[in-house]
Each structure stands twice: as C-alpha cells, then as structure tokens.
Amino acid sequence: MGHYVIVMAHRLFFTPMKRPTLILLATITSASMFGLSPLEREVKTIYEDAVFRGVQPESLIDRVNAIPTDSIENFTDSIRYSYHYMKAGVMDIQGINNEEKIAHIDAALQLREKSIGIKDSEYLELIWAKGSDIQEKDPAQAMRMYQKGVVVGQSMIAENLPAVDYWYGKLLDELGSLYEDRGYTQQAISLYREGFQLTSRNYSEDDASSWLPLYRLEYLYYKQGQYEEAVSVCDEILGYLESHQAQQTKHYADVINVKNDVMAGMAVKLNDNGVQYLLSGDGESALPLLNKAKGIFESLKLESTPVYATTLHNIGRANMLCENYPEAKSYLEQAKALQIKVEGQVFERTQQYLDEVNASIK
Q1: ∠ CA(320), CA(282), CA(351), 5° rounding?
Q2: What residues pair up with 204 in beta bridges, in sequence order?
Q3: Are 11 and 92 in contact (CB under 8 A)?
Q4: Does the model's pTM come out above 0.70?
Q5: Whether 173 contacts 199, CB under 8 Å
Q6: Residues 236-267 pLDDT 10s
Q7: Contact at 8 Å (CB) between 278 and 315?
Q8: Are 79 and 40 in contact (CB under 8 A)?
Q9: What is the pLDDT of residues 44-54, one digit of tens each?
C-alpha cells in the first residue's frame, strides 16, 4: 500500500493576507511622489498595487519585467527594495528558480537589514523564500536562515498580525522538516504542531499551506509505521477543513485519500503482526489483529483484493489453531473463492488447510 501524495502549490510572494503595517507605510508608501523620476514612480506604484491594493500579481509581471535592473542603482533604498522584492516575486510566479532570483532575494534582505527594517512579515517571507530555494542544495545554510527568521519573528508574534503569524508558522514548519531529515523526530513534531497553530489562522480554499504542517506530521507518523497516530492527524486536518466548510474541495478529497491509504497500511501491518503469532502457533493472539485488519479492509471496500483474500486465509488458519473448525472452514472457503476470482487459482496452502479442517470436522 502506497501513500497518497498531495501536491502543494506555493507562492513565495504577494500572499493574500498582506496588510499595510505602520513600518511599511512610514518607510515605503507614505512618501510623496514629488521629486521621484517616472521610473521610480512606476516601481512605487506597482509595489503598492501588489501589496496594498490587491491587484492580481499575475497582471503585474510585464510591468515589473519592463524595468531594467541596472536602472535602479541610484534609487532610494525603499524603491530599490520594492523592485528587488517584486522581481523575485514575479520570477517565482513564472516558475523561475535560479541564481538571479536568489540575488534579488538577497538584495531585498540586505536593504531591509540596512535601512528598511526587519520587523515586518516581508522580512520573514524573504527569509523563508531564500531558505526554500537553497534547502535541497544546502540544507545546513537553509536551517541557519530559518533559525534567523525565527529569532526575528519571536519579537513580533505577540502582535497577532496575520501575515506575521503565517510566515513565522511557515518558518517553524520548514525547520521541522529539516529536523525530521536529521532524525530529531520529537523536535520535528513540536515544530509542526507550533507551525500549524499559526499557519492555520490564514485558511485559503485554493492553498494548502495553512495545514501543510499537519500533512507533514501525518507523513512522519506514516513513514514510522505509526498508523493510528497518522489517522488521528488526518482526522484533525479533515476537522480543520470542515470548520471552513471545505468538504466539497479537492483538498478535502485529497486528505480522505491519504487517510484511506494510511488505514490500508495499518491493516497490512495488523495482518503481518497476526502472521507472526500464527508462525508460533498462537491463533488466539492472532485473531483480534486479523479481525481488525479484515474490518479495515471492508471499511475501505477492498473485499475483492488479494490482500483481503490473504486475510481471510489467515483468519481461517487462526481458527484452526484454536480448534474452531466450523469457523475455520467458513473463512478458508471464502479465501478459496476469492483467490479463484482475483488470482485465477487456489493457493496450495489454503487448500491444504481446508482439507485438514474437513477431515477434523468428520
């Protein structure tokens, strides 16, 4: 049984919970257009359209790309920052991930650290963007970036600003992923949980980012074979989506598929554990596990699959060991019929056990 994979779509910039903070209004948007060159005015106007006026970022791509990078060198820090931030953003929208994009992110980060100010959600966003772009190639540097963002974010989180909560939560989530990769499971679980507490405040129907930390937590449990914990987290995600009336969305259907795969994995594990008891001749200990596996397969409507036939065979064998011969015969006959249906033949061991049971009943 495999694990259903949910494809996550991420946007690094121009997130929907943008809001004009006092810092931004003071440093970037409140200044008069007086004295600015036409190109500076264009940069400033595009930035305000994207961040404050809610203009769709896709419609700004051509306007941003029309501004030559080398033309901004003598602009003010705030205008240069706006340009680098937006340029990295439109490159992300266009699916461009290269050194040029990282250079724009770095330039924006440096300008915030130099004069614009770091206590703003966009600084956390840029930290996350840089870490995400380098994480696969250099996870150690990415971890340092995320940790740097967390230190800054800790001083802002008490302000209860949606954008700060969102990006701080995403930094915690990415740290959790890196800790998980390094084998620090408990730290990863804590970071996923803390990250979800923050990202979950910014639900969007077309973006799974608000519950991504829980999805990663579920997958952590799944990979470790902790299926009951994974199912519990799936139910938590479903409950979160239901609280936003999202039962008819693709995301809800995706999580249902994930949960079904986890439950199937749980049933296979129960079956395997039951077989270990059968091999030692302990049918009594095997039966509860095998019957639970059978119930899960039935709840998933997998009664016409080879693994279900195997489970019926194993329950028959467990009843043989317990000398419940009529019960054993019933399950072995069901297993035989299903084997013929799905495999086109009867397994030799099933027929052997059936013959033995019939002889015992006589």
Answers
A1: 30
A2: 207
A3: yes
A4: yes
A5: yes
A6: 999 999 999 999 999 999 999 999 999 999 99
A7: no
A8: yes
A9: 888 888 777 77
